[in-house]
Amino acid sequence: MDDLFIARSLFGTTMAFHIIFATIGVGLPLMILAAELTYQKTKDQDYVVMAKRWTKAFAVLLGVGIPTGTIAGVQLSLLWPGFMEVIGRVMPLPFQIEIYAFFIEALFMSIYVYAAERIAPWMRIASLILVAIGALSSAVLITNVHAFQGTPAGFRYENGQFTDINPWEAFFNPSFFVTAGHVALSAYVVGAFVVASVAAFKMRKHETGTRVYQLHQKALKLTLILGCLFAFLTALNGHESAQYLHEYQPEKLAAAEGLFETQSHAPLAIGGVTDKETKEIKGAIEIPWALSFLAGNSFDTVVVGLNDFPEDEWPPLFIHTLFNGMVGIGSILIVIPLLVWAWRKLLKKDHYPKPLLWILVCTGPLAVLAIEFGWIFACTGRQPWVIYRILKTAESATTATNLSTLFILFIAVYIILAIAVVLVLLYFFRKNTELDDIERAEKKNVPLYSSNT
Amino acid sequence: MADALIAITVLWGFVFIYAVMATMDFGAGFWSMVYINREKTRATNIANRYLSPTWEVTNTFIVALVVAVYSLFPTAAYNLGTILLIPGSIILLLLALRSAFLVFSNIATEYKKPLTYISGIAGIIIPGLLISVLPITHGKFVDYGDGFANLNLGRLFSSPNVYAFIGFAICSTLFLSSLLLADYSKTAGEMDAYRVYLRDGRILGPISLIFAFLIMFTLQNEAEWLYERMMDDLPLLLISVAFFLIIGVGLYAPSIFQKGVMGMPRLSVIAATLQYLIASYVYGKAHLPYIIYPNVTIESAFTDPNSFRAVFITYIVGFAILFPGFIYFWSLFMHDKKYLRQKG
Ligand code: HDD
Ligand code: HEM
Ligand code: HEM
């Protein structure tokens, strides 16, 4: 295999693995905060129990999220030294500021977990808010580098030289806010549905109306409300992201939609496979005029097709499927909570049938899948550029060869970590059942947060 | 000129802070493994009580360090990134196993032993690999065939100087962490653990010093330019050795603050920090202006002035924001008697 391809695969694997833990790491603190605040409002101990259990899960996930993130951060310099040289010169601010976000998260996470019993309740909430802010900012800032890769700004590039560098202009590059908003909102989607999945899974195993069932039912309700809200906002914002592609990276939008001819009244293609040879999309359901409307809010909008670009600058065409996958899942995730609501409120049913619970169990993995689709779409769809129209991926890669051994080693370590983290979570929550925590929460003098046996 | 010098000083400061924090961190992980079967002395508990809240913060420093390199000296980052692919990747792999299993060992209590062994052993190898970056920057192990820099691993691992560095890193990790844990357990009133760590410090101190001499001795052959420049500051090096004697006083003399207690670990910790500070200042000064000898200097690798100014401002603002957080953290975990003296 050629070394560039291995480098890309290695980095992509690292990111695909890190992103699972990172995204949950952004989403979960908000859910914990929601539970803590609901407790302050209702004084229902169950919410404290939820907060505690999610915090433990969060601490375990951080044990993988932080080291894999460290790998990602260092691997950028190891595998793409040419890219990081440019980033260091032009766009150092997000990484720099991100460090402070990491510090805030690390400091207050330790305080929230290891000092929970020694600090005042308001301080506990304040620490949690700082953890949530830290996690959110780290996501927003790292995404800013990604935004810069798509819409570079803040410098002039002539004869291989970077001049007139303005790092703040680079920081506030055109797609920063839209992209960062999308990543933040979608992380909350993931946080909410992952918790909802677990709650639905547990409800399936316990008798309706038991203490434990009620606990999970409350968790389910809380997270479905939040999940539906954030899924809706994600879709709105995703629509805007697509408009940015139309404006700034038209070939990516064309590839995402399998559009070859430049045209107004362009159709939106759902499903199907894009064929490079015949230059058409096969087996897709086409909604006439819709793409033009989505791209520019008017049917007259001219959407540029792939034929207008040299073929060696086309993104890989399979990103069409990834894009469909992400949007499809996004739409499903808006509908499912609404269905549950209709079932309970309109049809006035007070139980959750097994099939419904099974559907809810699927939502968390689906949300994670949407994140994976979205990122691979965004990163792979930028090819062959690492910085759009400035620097090619091939030019920025390491000159070292024989990367395959490293690739195998990293994959092995990711597999070990993945298995271990699942086993540890299962072990911990089997040993600390919901009833144990409910009991601890009810007794005033027994530590809840620092209990872990 | 002045800007590049400020930048390298900041970077050197990060390296130093990380070096101190990482030695405490990796060392504590190792000790918690070594003493895991000696439940009576509680030496493992002390190590864990230090480690649990701090590893995450320490880890952030390594990221800060890498980010500082490429935002202050992008060209150096380019070269280092190319050269360090293999050692860097191995460090990352070990670090991942270490951090993850450290967390797991605190959660899955029944499997604490095997998990602690994995994290303890992975953790103690890391400082040895990290420090190998220093001899690599001395230039002798980098080939510049066909225009690309390339690390010659064969030459690297047949160099006595590299082994002296590795030995020094591992010994000092154990040495400094035992001093710190001695101090920490004394504050916590765990006198059994205190005696264990005091003894470890007494054994490891001289070994670390021997390795330091070995580094200088082998440096003479392998990087003469650096050796000569370091020797220009001989008085400072001698002061550094004098601090070593103060560490010894802290370890052996009876306490003048508390009757009937042997040793003043706080004195040793402070003296050790100063000793390493002076020694690394001499090393860093001699290394200038080269980042990677002889091709990359702080001048040639320096970032764009506008970017430097912006980054520098974020350092100041960031530090101002974080400082109270660090103080609060410190008071909760290093200073709070209730935390230090807890059972369990
Ligand atoms: C739960 C996850 C999730 C969901 C439900 C959606 N997205 Fe998304 N999307 C992401 C998660 C995501 C992401 C993983 O976070 C990406 C990858 C890069 C980025 O900026 O965000 C992304 C990227 C991304 C991009 C590409 C941006 C770029 O290449 O720079 C577009 C155009 C959209 N999304 C559009 C949508 C639309 C129209 C959705 C309708 C429902 C949608 N997304 C739902
Ligand atoms: C977090 C989720 C992410 C995932 C799953 C992901 C996935 C990928 C994949 C699969 C590739 C290989 C693309 C290819 O060669 O076809 C890639 C490349 C890359 N990504 Fe991302 N990425 C993510 C986030 C980011 C972010 C936030 C950045 C910005 C710092 C980034 C920067 C890069 C760079 C520099 C490359 C290498 C050059 C390139 O192939 O364009 N990625 N990523
Ligand atoms: C958009 C995708 C990403 C999201 C949402 C995200 C988010 C996070 C979060 C929440 C953490 C835990 C922070 C902490 O507790 O300290 C983390 C860790 C980390 N991430 Fe990511 N990250 C993403 C992509 C990346 C990329 C592309 C890089 C590489 C440049 C990266 C580098 C890191 C590093 C270095 C850490 C460890 C920080 C530490 O040592 O404390 N992340 N990330």
Shape of chain A: globular
Number of strands of chain B: 4
Radius of gyration of chain A: 23 Å
What would you say the CATH architecture of chain B is?
Up-down Bundle
Query: Helical residue percent of chain A?
Result: over 70%
Multimerization state: heterodimer
Tally the helices of chain A.
15
| SSE topology string of chain B | HHHHHHEEHHHHHHEEHHH
Rg of chain B (C-alpha, Å)? 21 Å
Task: Output mean pLDDT of chain B.
Answer: 86
Distance between the termini of chain A: 48 Å
Uncertain stretches of chain A: none
Percent in strands of chain B: under 5%
Order of helices and strands of chain A: HHHHHEEHHHHEEEEHHHEEHHH
Biggest sheet of chain A: strands side by side, in what order?
1-2
Task: Produce the secondary structure layout.
The complex is a heterodimer of chains A (453) and B (344).
Chain A: H1 3-42, H2 45-79, H3 81-90, H4 93-114, H5 121-150, E1 156-158, E2 161-163, H6 167-171, H7 176-205, H8 211-248, H9 250-257, E3 268-270, E4 273-275, E5 280-282, E6 285-287, H10 290-296, H11 319-346, H12 354-380, E7 385-387, E8 391-392, H13 393-396, H14 404-431, H15 434-442
Antiparallel strand pairs in A: 1-2, 3-6, 4-5, 7-8
Helix pairs in contact in A: 1-2, 1-5, 1-7, 1-12, 1-14, 2-3, 2-14, 2-15, 4-5, 5-7, 7-8, 7-12, 8-9, 8-11, 11-12
Chain B: H1 2-34, H2 43-72, H3 74-83, H4 85-107, H5 112-131, H6 133-137, E1 142-143, E2 150-151, H7 153-156, H8 160-187, H9 191-222, H10 224-231, H11 234-252, H12 265-287, E3 290-292, E4 296-297, H13 298-301, H14 305-333, H15 337-340
Antiparallel strand pairs in B: 1-2, 3-4
The complex binds CIS-heme D hydroxychlorin gamma-spirolactone and protoporphyrin IX containing FE (2 copies).
